[in-house]
Specification:
- This protein has helices spanning 2-38, 103-112, and strands spanning 42-47, 50-52, 57-66, 69-73, 78-83, 90-91, 96-101, 120-124, 129-132, 142-143, 148-154, 158-165, 177-181, 187-199, 205-213, 223-229, 236-240, 245-246, 253-258, 263-268, 270-274, 278-283, 292-295, 303-308.
- It is of the alpha+beta class and 313 residues long.
- It has 3 domains: 42-54 and 234-308, conserved putative lor/sdh protein from methanococcus maripaludis s2 fold; 57-66 and 157-229, Efflux pump adaptor protein, beta barrel domain (Elongation Factor Tu (Ef-tu), domain 3, Beta Barrel), CATH 2.40.30.170; 69-155, RNA polymerase II/Efflux pump adaptor protein, barrel-sandwich hybrid domain (OB fold (Dihydrolipoamide Acetyltransferase, E2P)), CATH 2.40.50.100.
- The model has no long low-confidence stretch (mean pLDDT 84).
């Protein structure tokens, strides 16, 4: 009898405990869901992978040089009566640079106080260009025949002297184009014109000449950077540079990819050619519809909750 009463009491207690436990578990589950739903989400913008070609450039250093330097000399003995140019002036073909009077004409004009062209020789520019190394600045100076008056750099004879290691000479072809980057980061186009068949013993380099296509005045002996396209024109996976994340030592690279509308995961990548705005992704191979975060990925963990503000479909 006592055993029956104890059993009934025990069963009654269990009947009370089971609902309480069930209610507690349901409440915990709801709390976890509420907590999960309340976690902050990073606001991001995404983009899609593209197939494009990023140039693969061979880089070298070059120096500007003018192959055609016109050294203008006095054609006669006499006095400089007029100097019509200044250092650095740009002159046109056949323009008058100097006027020289013979000693007899100079004395005659001085005594009569009347300006005449008697005995005056005009020195003109043999081509268009720019005046450098001006020797005669003021008139009334006496010069002998053959004395240097100035040096004229022909505008159309601006060239580039590039030293290419013999092992890389295959990248340079006569008639091929190249990019010339000046110290101010402006870019000009050039064309390879001649390979000098002589090897430097110490550096094992070959001199290559290239013409520069520009109307801008470029001084001689300017050091520039030369980029030559290697010619491997194959389409590759390309992403905006803002998609790429890296560690402090820039040894590891990754991107953040969406696996659903609200979750992004870290994907390690191997990169190739780069520009200021784009980067080539060698591995892995992405699907054309993969959403890659291009804004807001900085600081995200391996897995992150996100809100995509720019969803591509």
């Amino acid at each position: 009898m006592d055993i029956s009463i104890y059993t009934m009491a025990k069963n009654r207690t269990l009947l009370l405990i089971i609902p309480i436990l069930a209610l507690s578990l349901f409440s915990c589950n709801n709390n976890q869901k509420a907590k999960k739903s309340s976690e902050p989400k990073a606001q991001v913008k995404t983009t899609l992978i593209k197939q494009a070609y990023l140039p693969d450039y061979y880089s070298a250093l070059g120096t500007t040089i003018y192959l055609n330097k016109n050294i203008l000399t006095a054609p006669i003995n006499g006095y400089i009566s007029k100097v019509k140019v200044q250092q650095g002036d740009k002159v046109e073909d056949k323009s008058i640079l100097f006027e020289i009077q013979s000693p007899e004409a100079y004395v005659l004009n001085k005594n009569t106080n009347k300006a005449t062209n008697y005995g005056t020789i005009k020195v003109t520019a043999p081509t268009s260009g720019r005046i450098v190394d001006l020797k005669i600045v003021n008139p009334t100076i006496y010069v002998n025949k053959g004395d240097v008056l100035c040096t004229l750099l022909a505008s159309k004879n601006l060239n580039l002297k590039v030293k290419i290691p013999f092992s890389d000479i295959a990248f340079v072809k006569i008639g091929a184009s190249c990019k010339v980057i000046l110290p101010d980061n402006s870019i000009l186009s050039g064309t390879f014109s001649k390979i000098i068949p002589q090897l430097n013993k110490q550096s094992q380099t070959v001199k290559v000449l290239a013409t520069i296509n520009t109307n801008r005045f470029i001084p001689e002996n300017m050091r520039v950077k030369v980029l030559v396209d290697k010619g491997n024109h194959q389409l590759q996976q390309v992403l905006p540079m803002t998609c790429l994340q890296t560690d402090a030592l820039m040894n590891n690279f990754w991107v953040m990819k969406l696996i659903n509308d609200s979750t992004a995961i870290r994907v390690p990548v191997e990169i190739g050619n780069q520009t200021h705005t784009q980067v080539e992704i060698i591995k892995p191979e992405f699907n054309k519809n993969d959403q890659i975060i291009m804004q807001g990925a900085y600081g995200l963990g391996d897995t992150a909750l996100v809100t995509n503000l720019q969803l591509f479909k």
